[in-house]
Amino acid sequence: MPRILIVDDDPHIRQALVERFAARKFDVLTAGSGREAVAMISREKPDVVLLDLQLPQGDGFSVLKGLRDEGLEATVVVITAFGTIDKAVQAMKEGAYDFIQKPFEPALIEETVRRALERTSLRRTVRAAAAPPPVIGLASAVGLAEKAARSDATVLLLGESGTGKEVIARFIHRAGPFVAVNAAALPETLLESELFGHEKGAFTGAHARRAGKFELAHGGTIFLDEIGDIPSSMQAKLLRVLQERAFERVGGTETLKVDVRVIAATNRDLKKRVAEGAFREDLFYRLNVISITLAPLRERRGDIRPLAEHFLRELKPSARFAPDVLEALERYDWPGNARELRNSIERATALLDGQELGAGDLPPEILLSSSLPPDSFHGQVEDFRRRLIRDTLSRFDGNQTKAAEALKLQRTYLARLIRQLGI
Q1: Low-confidence ranges of the chain (pLDDT < 50)
Q2: What's CA 166's distance to the chain center, in Å?
Q3: Most CB within 10 Å of its CB: which of 44, 292, 298, 346?
Q4: Residue 9 CB: number of other CB atoms within 10 A?
């Protein structure tokens, strides 16, 4: 018999919820204050907690803290009054699974509790899951990622391409399938089918029923990469899945329910896109429950050496770096971040004759960028060129064609300068 704890200082709400869930064969407990709720959670170990945030003797946040301190696996659903959605979002950052706004529809609260109960069951089943994969070169993000992994909240990963967003997503993921989708790599006509699946005959070429990525991720994690590039027509459908964990296949009428952890990533400025009307504000807030920003490699040069050594061990364990190579790698700005670093080492090891990778084995743009003393005349000129190009690209939101026009340069020459200067 599933056990539910209802925490609300309004006795009428408590009684109404007790009657509803007792009739559905729940073992129902109640508490009218924060202090009473914390004591009951420790003693009774409920499966699901329906939690009002406005409580006497300790608010809902103190209850969430007590649950974390006890290391319990109960899933918390916050009940919030109109006008306090911001507090509900904050509660999700503190570990709550979802929130329901008063006055609530009975069917909605029942469905939310059912999903919360499934989440609790899944977490208990995988309590002894394998340790998360090692994370190298992302020490600044691991602490927050560990906290995110202990909650069920949606996570938004921000940062330039190649900074390691999928590595962190896999670190946060704990159990079940991990399904990754690159939204920018799919045309709009295929994205809906890829995410939600389709029925036979739904469109030309749909010769059989096909499960979508959300369906395949049931019980695990779906990683939505480049979420800032999804078209407007898909944003409303994605919002519904985040709110209800429900969808229909393309061409189908059956509503499918899934229990998935959603981790999204983007190299876009979503707040700016919201202001421009290109991204739904309500979807942004559903995604941005816990946000983790990954700094570019040029801003964490201390990570370059351990990453380079890791990639070399992975690609050619018998090889080693010459003494001057790691210094050259640390001086380069790595516009493509860790992905470019790995590609450069992979190319060098593929062409390596001996066992020592020297400076001459590196791509020329790395040597050019790293060989000039920063206080020399040419070094200062190069630094000025780099800053000028970066500022111009930033002004045109990364559009190289417009930046080339503003700088009175050919587009191909600007692209070559960007590579050479490590922008």
Answers
A1: 127-130
A2: 8
A3: 292
A4: 15
Q: Report whether the peptide linkage leading into residue 103 is cis, meaning its omega lies within 30 degrees of zero.
A: yes
CATH of the domain at 250: 3.40.50.300
pLDDT value, residue 207: 80
User: Between β-strands 246-248 and 255-257, what pairing exists: parallel, antiparallel or unpaired?
Assistant: antiparallel
In total, how many domains does the chain have?
3
Contact, 164 vs 140, CB < 8 A? no
Q: Is 329 found in the same domain as 192?
A: no
In whole angstroms, give the CA distance from residue 225 to residue 229.
Answer: 9
**148 Rama class: left (phi>0) / alpha (psi -120 to 50) / beta:** alpha
Per residue, what are the HEC states of the chain?
Answer: CCEEEEECCCHHHHHHHHHHHHCCCCEEEEECCHHHHHHHHHHHCCCEEEEECCCCCCCHHHHHHHHHHHCCCCEEEEEECCCCHHHHHHHHHCCCCEEEECCCCHHHHHHHHHHHHHHHHHHHHCCCCCCCCCCCCCHHHHHHHHHHHCCCCCEEEECCCCCCHHHHHHHHCCCCCEEEEEHHHCCHHHHHHHHHEECCCCCCCCCCCEECHHHHCCCCEEEEECHHHCCHHHHHHHHHHHHHCEEECECCCCEEECCCEEEEEECCCHHHHHHCCCCCHHHHHHHCCEEEECCCHHHCHHHHHHHHHHHHHHHCCCCEECHHHHHHHHHCCCCCHHHHHHHHHHHHHHCCCCCEECHHHCCHHHHHHHCCCCCCHHHHHHHHHHHHHHHHHHHCCCCHHHHHHHHCCCHHHHHHHHHHHCC
Does 130 map to a domain? no
Query: Could you tell me if 204 and 106 lie in one domain?
Result: no
Based on the fold, state whether residues 284 and 305 are members of the same structural domain. Answer: no
Q: Whole domain around residue 19: which residue ranges?
A: 3-125
CA distance 266 to 287: 11
Quick one: pLDDT at residue 314? 87
Look at residues 176, 152, 147 and name the one whose alpha carbon lies nearest to residue 48. Answer: 152
Cα-Cα-Cα-Cα dihedral sign, residues 26, 32, 36, 37: positive
Looking at the structure, tell me whether residues 53 and 158 fall in a common domain: no
pLDDT at 129: 46
d(CA 34, CA 22): 23
